[in-house]
Design goal:
The protein is of the alpha/beta class. It has four domains: 30 residues, no CATH class; 302 residues, MetI-like (MetI-like fold); 268 residues, Aminopeptidase, CATH 3.40.630; 160 residues, Glucose Oxidase, domain 1 (3-Layer(bba) Sandwich). 44% of the residues lie in helices and 14% in strands. A seven-stranded mixed β-sheet has the order 9-15-11-12-13-14-10, with helices on both faces. Strands 5-17-19-18-20-23 form a six-stranded mixed β-sheet, with helices on one face. Helix 24 packs across helix 25. The radius of gyration is 37 Å and the shape is elongated.
């Protein structure tokens, strides 16, 4: 037992050596220290407050009524028709809002709960940085007193201390870009705040190195570095421990001062409450107590409670940390406590655990955690319910105004608080009126070459309908012709009469069919490099096109490269060699195969294209005009296959996903900084009306809401172009593969990669994909692997899983402004 007491005594104070102080009451032998000597009032108060702060940091967000990383404006102004009053935040303290709200209706108590994590973690890392810098620089400076290093550190300390810390901190934070987050504050306040600690540590090292036990250690053969680590450093660590808590309190006070001056973590975004108001309000995007002080300061006289809550949080925290630090100092003064055990190897585990816990908490302060939570709020049951309801209303649009499928989509958009997407004069709408003239096969097109007639319509061939390309019957020998329009001369008429021409898409043009028909060609096969399924040219761009044709129309088929290879193989030719030769020289080659083309098209008919255009305005005036277009299309005109009577179910699947994303955003109060344009386009496979719609929205500025911008603060009357484009394609297949365009910006690609990784989805970069609006526009194409085959009945679990990752991508795109 006596041995254990000696070991314990040695661990507490390695220098005790059995001798005691008897001439002073200030230092008492450890084993005789009563608990009442340890539990001094400042220490007890500090322990209570620090414990409370730890609980708030870890569990605070659970007590909050909303997530400020997702919602920046909880309660916008609205008119209460029952009481006939205009309800406008901020709201005074009440049972619902114990500390009141800010000017956006956000509960201040919830913001304090959320902000505790960011504020305290920031202060902790700044404290660690200051203490580490002060210990290293001050320790070496004091141990090498009088050296060039000592003089350098002291002069550097003098220079830094000569500038008021508040002023230098402001300059450095702004220079490093305040919008880059927590690390800017950590670096700035650490680099500028180590000087006092370094001077204190330097003085302690100078005092300690004069002690007799230091001389004794050197006499035993230890190097000066070994003596500093084993004997000097342990005697400074206990001193630094109490100083650290006092320093953390000082850092919180500095952060409060910076907040009062409008500088806080993240910098926030600018918002104009009224389109015609000159007042610009700063909104914090990262919940932090300094940001609450900054937002409440302009309203200090009118609504003092907006500042009282965060100020009280700062006061209690600073009081607790200062009390805890003072309590530790009193304990260490009366009870010589050695920290030599901190340098033991077993402390590596404790240090690693501390770093791991700090990293976890730090990661929890990241907005990506909130993004992922909202992404995972994508309800599987609700998405499947949307899918089943869409199947009920599933029919091909004859008149878009009376189309129940479009009506259902618009009803859901209205239910999810999606605004009208476009306007004409003073009225706004969801449906964009656009018409097109279509032709459709009266019967399934016939195509055979040689003995083969098993070619699949739309998967292996489709038709073109422009100029002299249209209805007709062709039966003749197949020739491969590499000439252009000008090579169909009267002199060569005998070479082409009654023939079926095989040519390349690079050579074919709208005038090609008429030139060929004039010399007696009965049909044309155009080889495309596009992958199946192919799109027929159902759309007639001009009704008068047929009048321009001087002869009867002839059938023109678009065939895949694979079909061309099979035709060449039947003629015992190498298709790749023929294709290369055609690009170098003109010529005619008889393939010795008879081809039959039979295409009977309906009369041109004008139809309305079903669609839904929705809009959510962004509130950040610096980014509101960076419109994110979320686009998906479906075949609402019956063009995907012959005699189609319903919208394909894989199209319904992606509509269901997008509707559920709208539902999730509405349910979780997602407040976008960028403006969002939702486009559900029912004219899949046609281009003319699509261009008309895009031109009307973004060139003629028919957006329902005029977007405020930094340069035009009241409303933007100039055309607004999309800044980002996300297209949701086929999600019906089983392969967990998604594709993003190689034209995407590095920022968008990184977001997409992170979100896909979180959902365990493989991603690939598209080889070639161009937007129909602007090929240079940053974009993401979310599509199933093109090597897979679409299924008739989509797997709900598959597209719900992809709904989570799409939701994650979109949330981060509208909330995260980093480049």
């Amino acid at each position: 037992m006596k041995g254990l007491k000696q070991i314990f005594s040695y661990l507490i104070n390695p220098r005790s050596g059995g001798w005691k102080f008897t001439d002073s009451d200030e230092i008492i032998e450890p084993r005789k220290v009563p608990w009442k000597g340890i539990l001094n009032p400042p220490f007890v108060l500090g322990v209570i407050i620090v414990t409370f702060l730890v609980i708030i940091v870890w569990f605070g967000p659970r007590f909050a009524s909303y997530d400020p990383y997702i919602t920046s404006r909880t309660t916008p102004s609205y008119y209460d028709s029952a009481n006939k009053v205009m309800v406008k935040p901020p709201f005074d303290p009440s049972p619902e809002y114990p500390l009141g709200t800010d000017q956006f209706g956000n509960d201040i108590l919830s913001l304090i709960f959320y902000g505790a994590r960011v504020t305290m973690i920031s202060a902790l890392y700044i404290t660690a940085g200051r203490v580490l810098l002060g210990l290293i620089l001050g320790g070496f400076s004091g141990w090498m007193e009088g050296s060039w290093f000592d003089r350098l550190i002291m002069r550097l300390s003098t220079v830094i201390s000569s500038v008021p810390l508040l002023l230098s901190a402001m300059l450095m934070i702004l220079a490093l870009d305040i919008h880059k987050g927590i690390w800017v504050f950590v670096v700035s306040l650490s680099v500028l705040g180590w000087t006092e600690i370094a001077q204190l540590v330097r003085g302690e090292f100078i005092r300690i190195k004069e002690m007799l036990y230091i001389e004794a250690a050197e006499a035993l053969g230890m190097t000066r570095f070994q003596v500093a680590i084993r004997h000097a450093l342990p005697n400074v660590l206990s001193y630094l421990l109490s100083i650290s808590f006092l320093e953390m309190g000082a850092i919180l006070l500095l952060m409060a001062e910076l907040g009062f001056l409008g500088l806080f973590v993240g910098g926030g975004s600018r918002f104009r409450a009224d389109a015609f108001s000159p007042v610009i309000i700063q909104i914090s995007e990262i919940p932090e107590w300094g940001a609450l002080v900054a937002q409440g300061t302009p309203n200090l006289r009118t609504y003092p409670y907006m500042v009282l809550g965060p100020a009280l949080a700062f006061f209690i925290s600073i009081l607790g940390l200062n009390s805890f630090g003072e309590g530790l100092r009193r304990i260490f003064d009366r009870w010589p406590f050695s920290t030599a055990f901190i340098l033991k190897k077993r402390m590596l585990l404790v240090t690693a655990a501390f770093i791991a816990i700090s990293a976890i908490i730090f990661q929890m302060t990241n907005a990506s955690v909130s993004y992922q939570q909202v992404a995972e709020a994508f309800h599987e049951d609700s998405a499947i319910a949307r899918y089943e309801e869409l199947k009920i209303f599933n029919n091909i649009a004859r008149e878009s105004e009376a189309n129940p499928l479009v009506d259902y989509i618009i009803e859901k958009a209205r239910e999810y608080d999606i605004q009208h997407g476009w306007s004409e004069t003073l009225t706004s709408y969801y449906y964009y009126p656009v018409e097109t003239t279509l032709v459709k096969p009266i019967e399934e097109p016939l195509f055979s070459v040689g003995p083969r007639s098993d070619y699949n319509y739309l998967n292996e061939f489709s038709f073109l309908s422009e100029g002299c390309a249209g209805s007709g019957y062709g039966n003749g020998q197949t020739i491969f012709f590499s000439g252009g329009v000008n090579d169909f001369t009267i002199e060569k008429k005998e070479d082409f009469r009654g023939k079926i021409i095989l040519t390349l898409e690079d050579i074919y043009s709208p005038e090609y069919a008429q030139a060929a028909a004039l010399v007696g060609v009965e049909g044309i096969l155009v080889v495309t490099q596009d992958q199946p399924p192919l799109t027929s040219q159902f759309e007639v761009f001009s009704v008068s096109d047929g009048d321009l044709c001087l002869v009867d129309d002839i059938p023109v088929y678009l065939i895949t490269n694979a079909v061309a290879k099979r035709i060449a193989a039947q003629a015992q030719q190498d298709w790749e060699l023929l294709r290369l030769q055609a690009l170098e020289e003109k010529g005619v080659l008889d393939l010795g195969l008879r081809a039959v083309l039979d295409l009977q098209l309906s009369e041109p008919k004008t139809v309305s294209v079903p669609n839904m255009i929705g809009f959510i305005g962004g509130y950040d005036i610096d980014h509101a005009d960076e419109i994110l277009v979320i686009y998906t299309s479906f075949d609402g005109l019956g063009l995907s296959e012959y005699d189609q009577q319903q919208v394909p179910e894989d199209d319904l699947a992606k509509i269901a996903v997008l509707l559920e994303i709208m539902h999730t955003w509405n349910e979780n109060k997602v407040d976008p900084r960028r403006s969002v344009q939702f486009v559900i386009w029912g004219g899949e496979g046609i281009e003319g009306p699509y261009y008309d719609m895009i031109y009307g929205l973004f060139e003629k500025n028919k957006l329902a809401a005029k977007v405020p911008t930094n340069t035009n603060p009241y409303m933007n009357t100039n055309p607004v172009k999309p800044a980002l484009w996300v297209e949701i394609g086929d999600l019906s297949n089983y392969l967990a593969t998604m594709v993003y365009s190689d034209q995407s910006t590095q920022f968008m690609s990184r977001i997409f990669s992170q979100a896909a990784h979180a959902a365990n989805l493989k991603i690939e970069s598209a080889i070639s994909y161009n937007l129909p609006v602007n090929s240079s526009l940053p974009n993401i194409l979310i599509w199933e692997d093109t090597r897979s085959t679409p299924t008739a009945n989509p797997d709900p679990e598959n597209y719900v899983q992809k709904g989570v990752v799409i939701n994650r991508v979109l949330i981060q795109l509208v909330r995260d402004m980093r480049d």
